[in-house]
Amino acid sequence: MAQLRIRASPRSISAATFCFWTSSVPGKMELEGVVMRNGSLAVMTLTMLGVVLAWDGARAGHPAIEERQALMKTLGTATKAGAEMVKGARPYDAAEAKRILDTYVAASSRIAGLFPAGSEEGGYTKAMIEIWSDATGFKAAVDKFEADARAAATATGDLETFKQAFATVGADCRSCHSDYRQ
């Protein structure tokens, strides 16, 4: 059995495999006979390459999707560090607590702009359609998160104050995720 592997890009389907059986028996498919008689191997290869590239393009999606996913990962990293301090798994550090809350403030001012019309489709996203159908509610949730993050950013003097501020901002995150994220 002969195999031909096509690899379009690391993000696309890992490989498309075509198998052709070679045989010296007349009437059986021979790799050379297919290529030389009618070019069907080339046609099939180009067709599958087109499918793979189309899949890759569909997965790439809207640029806002990638940008908001990167921002959410940054928030997730900050949240993990803050949760470790709150739970006592990491010693409280006022400077790090301030950096965590500053990360929230910086992100909060960008979130609403990362959900433009048209970015609800065109790539892998966990954003629910309610972000666009209930734009007023989503904007209110983002505004509340931003206001709470700004207020929390000054509450890093001691662990207890940080815990309260972190809990408030965390509740905003959970609320938005339950209403607007799959």
TrEMBL record:
PROSITE patterns: CYTCII (PS51009). Coiled coil: none annotated. It holds the Pfam family Cytochrom_C_2. It comes from the Bacteria. GO terms for molecular function: electron transfer activity; heme binding; iron ion binding. One of its GO terms (biological process) is electron transport chain. This is Cytochrome c.
